[in-house]
Amino acid sequence: MGDAAGIGPEIIAKAYREQPELMQGCFVVGDVATLRRAAQIVASAGRPALPVAVIAEANHVHGVPPHCIPVVQIGTGAEPVAWGKVSAVAGALAGRCVEWAADAALNGHVCALVTAPLHKEALAAAGEPYNQFPGHTELLQARAAHFLGKPVSEVPVRMMLANDELRTVLVSIHVSLRKAIEAVTFDNVLQTIRIAHHALLPVLARAPRIAVAGLNPHAGERGLFGLEEREVIQPAIEAACAQGMQVSGPWAPDTVFMRARNRPGVVPEFDVVIAMYHDQGLIPVKYLGVEKGVNVTLGLPLVRTSPDHGTAFDIAGTGRADPSSLVEAVRMAKALAREAGHLPERRPKASEPLGGQPRKEH
Amino acid sequence: MGDAAGIGPEIIAKAYREQPELMQGCFVVGDVATLRRAAQIVASAGRPALPVAVIAEANHVHGVPPHCIPVVQIGTGAEPVAWGKVSAVAGALAGRCVEWAADAALNGHVCALVTAPLHKEALAAAGEPYNQFPGHTELLQARAAHFLGKPVSEVPVRMMLANDELRTVLVSIHVSLRKAIEAVTFDNVLQTIRIAHHALLPVLARAPRIAVAGLNPHAGERGLFGLEEREVIQPAIEAACAQGMQVSGPWAPDTVFMRARNRPGVVPEFDVVIAMYHDQGLIPVKYLGVEKGVNVTLGLPLVRTSPDHGTAFDIAGTGRADPSSLVEAVRMAKALAREAGHLPERRPKASEPLGGQPRKEH
Fold first, then answer.
1. CA atoms of B349 and B351, how far apart (whole Å)
2. What φ, ψ does residue B67 adopt, rounded to 5°?
3. What local confidence, expressed as pLDDT, does residue B314 receive?
4. What is the C-alpha separation between A303 and A106, in angstroms, rounded?
5. pLDDT (tens digit per residue) in B340-350
6. Domain boundary among A228, A255, A287
């Protein structure tokens, strides 16, 4: 459900209303009263609020009638928190929902997780244990490490951003640009390549063509504008190739995304671009519009996607939130779960994009 | 003409063949034999090579018949150099062409300069004085400073990249990402804002709405991911606002370009984005396709545009070079010259984009 004070419940209610077929088999891990309030906000003249049905466990989702929002209740079910305000109660509830859902996925009771936005400050205000996690990813990573009996450092994860046109996997995310440069190490770059390779191999049913971006302008222009390409990135690419992966680069950052872009009439040169830092990858993914971007956490022993936006406290409760990215996140989660063998349905063809949607040119 | 061994002469010949109206009033500063060779390469069955006419000075361009390439001959007119090879002769010739053209512009004999690509190594091989200049921009800057009787440091320039959708002005260009971070200083950011403001004011006939990108992910997320936004960028924005410019930011780099994007049905929030480093600005400009990007040098006492690509030695002489970016560069140079009062023709409306081309939605 994400943070109850944000737009999470509203975009969930909109997804159920606008995409009933897609949402079949999905349920919300959250709070019934909060979802009922969201369903009311989404309702309009002639389109009454969708009913919310409480279910006790994952399997019961199949017994819920259509056009109904199934919810597993977490917490006491007290009054919903105020919209748009940082709340320790909402932070703790959101954290507990993530834990429940992670455990359900790790134990095979659900085939994928789609996470609505958390609010960092609410999570911090919630106190132990949630205040030690900057967000979903770290929470899920800790839960997965615990489940696997490994230290967190042995469950490396990477963020992939994807839309209809482009996939990019990031070496680092929420650190300053200075620290991001320090994070461009042989180990980190090779690990990112490896995680991307293993994540996309089953999706494409072949080795993904991985492009690695340089760090510096023109990928260093033969050492004139920086040495990281020669000293770090190139050796990591060679190591990955030696391990049988199909990797090229380091490519000039300003054109590699364009070359990987999947658009009508053009066969992209690459299936995914490894970006050296947050904005290098996010600028091109978001340039064509934020509403279609989906965030996929790679490296976890479970499928997890999320919309590519935050809690938007400024518009929470107004009914103006756009569910597009959440809808795409659900679509992609289903496609990935199918590939992972959790969903028995149709198998997308190798030429289909990650999300399993038809490409425009096909 | 750019480097004679590169694609410059070929894309010039193509521009004259494909855009005769646009090229009216334009002439080449270069080498007749090289242009004749280029015209031959561009010729095809049923479309003979355009004739090349030697002119002695700028004014004679108006006496040249249509469908003819007018050339001011620089140098001895010896055999053209080999395609696709670094040549000291080509480097020196290209350097001399730039000097001739810069002086012609500074002295008011031509209203704008469009520069075809140079080759850095050829320029270096050419020896004094050309080997001290990494490229056109520095050569033009030195020539302008000399003309104005100022030190080069008092003729600060910035690169603007523009296409139909987006304009971005860069704080720094061809340095490593580490050095680019060091170049994000109060003075450099404020100077970039000022140069962008003064360059776009006459084009838009109003104060441009300038967005300043942050340096770090999420523009530092209130100091969590870096302090440059608070300590450097924000004060520079405030100083610019205090001087009457219309400036906002620092904005999250991953969404600010999207918000400035001019596309059908959407009114962009900003007229230009100040990018903190090369790839931050170039990735979004190039994402939709490299062929339409134009490079504009701001800060010089002359109008100068150039295509957004290099000499492409790998395809030089094959006839496969794409003149689109050069054509756009000529179009934009004419629009800017018109705004600067050098060309008496029509005045674009304030709502028109920089290049004076009609927007799709109008």
1. 5
2. 60, 40
3. 94
4. 10
5. 776 655 444 44
6. A287
Contacts of B217 (CB under 8 A, 6+ apart): A173, A174, A175, A176, A177, A180, A277, A278, A279, A282, B225, B252, B253, B254
In a mutational test of the A interface, the residue from B175, B251, B283, B309 whose CB has the highest number of chain A CBs within 10 Å is: B283
Count the domains in chain A. 2
Contacts of A287 in chain B (CB under 8 A): 257-258, 261, 283-284, 287-288
Name the pLDDT band for B361 (thresholds 50, 70, 90).
very low
Q: Cα–Cα distance between B226 and B136 in angstroms, integer?
A: 35
- Write the ipTM: 0.86
C-alpha angle with apex B52: B51 to B55, nearest 5 degrees?
A: 140
Q: Which domain holds residue A197?
A: 166-287
Identify each DSSP E strand in B38-148 by its residue range.
52-55, 69-73, 113-114
In this prediction, residue A359 has a pLDDT band, given cuts at 50, 70 and 90, of very low
Would you call B220 an interface residue with chain A, using a CB distance cutoff of 8 Å?
A: yes
Percent of chain A with pLDDT strictly greater than 70? 93
Question: pLDDT tens across B145-165, in order?
Answer: 999 999 999 999 999 999 889
CB contact under 8 A, A255 and B224: no
Q: Work out the pLDDT band at A291, boundaries 50, 70, 90.
A: low
Inter-helix orientation angle B88-106/B136-148, to 10°: 40
Over its C-alpha atoms, chain A yields an Rg (Å, rounded) of 21
pLDDT at B360: 37
Q: Are residues A261 and A352 in the same domain?
A: no
Write phi, then psi, for B54 (nearest 5 degrees): -80, 130
* Shared domain check, B305 and B278: no
Statement: residue B51 has pLDDT above 50 = yes
Query: Does the structure show a pLDDT above 70 at A351?
Result: no
Could you tell me what percent of chain A has a pLDDT over 90? 79
Which domain CATH number covers A191?
3.40.718.10
Q: A86 and A56 in one domain? A: yes
On whether any CB of chain B is under 8 Å from the CB of A124, the answer is no
Q: Are residues B148 and B196 in the same domain?
A: no
Looking at the fold, whether A247 and A362 belong to one and the same domain comes out as no
Residues of A in contact with B258 (CB under 8 A): 286-290
Same domain as B268, residue B199: yes
Section A198-212 average pLDDT: 93
Closest approach of chain A CAs to the CA of B134, in angstroms? Answer: 11
Task: Decide: helix, strand or coil at residue B65.
Answer: coil
